[in-house]
Amino acid sequence: LAKTTQPISMDSYEGQEVNITCSHNNIATNDYITWYQQFPSQGPRFIIQGYKTKVTNEVASLFIPADRKSSTLSLPRVSLSDTAVYYCLVGDVSSNTGKLIFGQGTTLQVKP
Amino acid sequence: DAGVTQSPTHLIKTRGQQVTLRCSPISGHKSVSWYQQVLGQGPQFIFQYYEKEERGRGNFPDRFSARQFPNYSSELNVNALLLGDSALYLCASSLDPGSSYNEQFFGPGTRLTVL
Q1: What is the pLDDT of residue A23?
Q2: For an interface test with B, which of A86, A99, A102 has the most B Cβ atoms less than 10 Å from its Cβ?
Q3: Segments forming the whole domain that contains residue A59
Q4: For residues A90 and A24, is the Cβ–Cβ distance under 8 A?
Q5: Residue A4 maps to a domain
Q6: How high does pLDDT run on average in chain B?
Q7: How far apart are CA A81 and CA A109, in angstroms?
Q8: Span B5-99: which CATH code?
Q9: What's the confidence (pLDDT) of residue A95?
Q10: pLDDT of B98 strictly over 90
């Protein structure tokens, strides 16, 4: 699985848009990019997944440039409840064996 | 529908003791995976079980073992506890081992403290 690099931490204020970038220079052709969210003392929760260009759901948007060597998770108008750790994962979902490989993640702190 | 449940919520043990953690997957899910999350780090894969058989193992010592029961619930056992085993132990369930990333659901975890 491709290694990912994310900022360790980010601060934001309520109502702002937050963009978290993940680098994955060695991403393979069959790899997808997946983001998880984890609140303190809870298990990670799937947010969004994409392969290329842009994906949007009710929670977030995921921007993936043409070379796919990085991706950006965009959280619109964050609130205090978005304070959490965000993990970027890269892997071939079609041959997933159930083994998710997490990095350190990005701790997002939303301030009032 | 109930999500993934884990018990106990918290546990305190001393070095050298043994511990058993339990997980009940979402109804209909036959695959269970276990992860260890040390404070400040991402979860690390320990085991995956499907249909009562081990399907994957992470880089953990033999002190860690697990099993899955006919009702698809699972237990994680850790023997000869070390201080470094203190962590949040997470269970994730999915329909089968090949489930995509968005089809794996995590429980709230068991917080194990080893003194």
Answers
A1: 94
A2: A99
A3: 9-111
A4: yes
A5: no
A6: 92
A7: 10
A8: 2.60.40.10
A9: 58
A10: no
Total domains, chain A: 1
Name the percent of chain B lying above pLDDT 90.
78
Q: Is residue A3 in some structural domain? A: no
The domain that holds A19 is classified in CATH as 2.60.40.10
* Residue at A50 is within a domain: yes
SS (H, E, C) chain B: CCCCEEECCEEEECCCCCEEEEEECCCCCCEEEEEEECCCCCCEEEEEEECCEEEEECCCCCCEEEEECCCCCEEEEECCCCHHHCEEEEEEEECCCCCCHHHCEECCCEEEEEC
Chain B residues 54-113 with a CB less than 8 Å from chain A = 55-56, 58, 88, 90-92, 94, 97-102, 104-109, 111
Chain B: closest CA distance from residue A56 (Å): 15
Res B104 pLDDT > 90: no
Q: How many CB atoms lie within 10 A of CB B75?
A: 16
Tens place of pLDDT per residue across chain A (112 aa) = 568 999 999 999 999 999 999 999 999 888 889 999 999 889 999 999 999 989 999 999 999 999 999 999 999 999 999 999 999 998 876 655 667 888 889 999 999 9
User: Most distant CA pair in chain A: distance in Å?
Assistant: 42
